[in-house]
Specification:
The structure holds 2 protein chains of 2 kinds.
Chain A (H helix, E strand, L loop, with lengths): L1 H5 L1 E14 L8 H8 L8 E14 L10 H16 L2 E2 H4 L10 H12 L8 E7 L5 E4 L3
Parallel strand pairs in A: 1-3
Antiparallel strand pairs in A: 1-2, 2-4, 4-5
Chain B lengths: L3 E13 L8 H8 L8 E13 L11 H16 L2 E2 L14 H12 L7 E11 L2 E5 L3
Parallel strand pairs in B: 1-3
Antiparallel strand pairs in B: 1-2, 2-4, 4-5
The chains are: A alpha+beta, B alpha+beta.
Chain lengths: 142, 138
């Protein structure tokens, strides 16, 4: 087991997007939303510089020396995530959040579910999403 | 007397868009690109407020940094944090919501409230890790 694991390397790619959102649960009253989400519930939205760290773990391909070509990984993230999330309003512009509160937790799961099918099954995927320099989430949690 | 520059760093998160209401939608898209998205986008803004002066002989301070923080909080951060800069901020009303104009607004919010003995020297506003402006009141 140790020998197999010894070939596995984690490759990280950092990307970013800037977006507006608000935290709001439409099934709750306005008072309950204010109580739960405070200023994050303000009606006219606020926003963040999100930073996404994509971690891909796998065995090194002896032909290329890569676990994954970081250019390929960057293109994948840009085409499927950044172009969709950057300079958007997560609540209004992304169908994924029509019924889903765009917390960092839910955003990272949405991103994971988009990226996971695009990568080879031999590769593991883990994401870290920074909402602010002080608040960040990871998925899957290990 | 020796002059010192003291900087206080604060932050706020806000939504905005770049949009000139006297232009057509097409012209706005052409000039401002994705920043003109009608449903807004947003940033984690970092604000650096620098004052200059000579230390008060009784305290050794140019200005009490805690007092400066409280002034910035009252006149700037409380008004901008988790707000929509185009819609929610009286001092940005009828102004284009660029960081240049925002910094100018912040300067005028703060300048009258800097404690005596110090003067406002520079406002630096960081919009993204790659974009920031500085304003010296000139």
């Amino acid at each position: 087991m140790l020998n197999i694991m010894a070939n596995r390397v984690a490759v990280f790619r950092r990307e970013h997007f800037n977006a507006a959102h608000r935290l709001h649960n439409p099934s709750l009253s306005s008072e309950e939303n204010t109580r739960l989400f405070g200023k994050c519930n303000l009606p006219n939205y606020h926003g963040h510089n999100y930073e996404l760290i994509v971690k891909v773990t796998g065995e090194i391909d002896p032909k290329t020396g890569y676990v994954i070509d970081t250019k390929t990984l960057s293109d994948l993230v840009n085409e499927h995530i950044i172009s969709k999330f950057d300079h958007r309003n997560l609540n209004l512009d992304l169908p994924e959040f029509k019924e889903l509160n765009p917390t960092a937790e839910n955003i990272v799961m949405v991103i994971f579910n988009i990226l996971r099918p695009l990568l080879s099954e031999q590769l593991s995927l883990q994401l870290r999403l920074y909402e602010t320099p002080r608040n960040f989430v990871e998925y899957p949690a290990i | 007397m020796a002059l010192f520059y003291l900087t206080r760093k604060e932050h706020f998160n806000a939504a905005h868009k770049l949009y000139n209401p006297s232009w057509s939608r097409e012209k706005n898209d052409e000039v401002f690109g994705k920043c003109a998205n009608e449903n807004w986008h947003g940033h984690n803004f970092e604000l650096y407020v620098t004052v200059k002066g000579s230390p008060n002989p009784e305290t050794g301070f140019v200005v009490d940094a805690k007092q400066l923080s409280s002034i910035i909080k009252t006149f700037v951060v409380d008004q901008l944090d988790h707000r929509n800069l185009n819609l929610d901020v009286p001092f940005m009303k009828d102004k284009l919501c660029s960081i240049e104009n925002l910094v100018d607004g912040i300067w005028h919010q703060l300048a009258p409230h800097i404690p005596s003995g110090a003067t406002l020297h520079c406002i630096k506003l960081v919009e993204t890790p790659r974009i920031y402006v500085e304003y010296y009141g000139e």
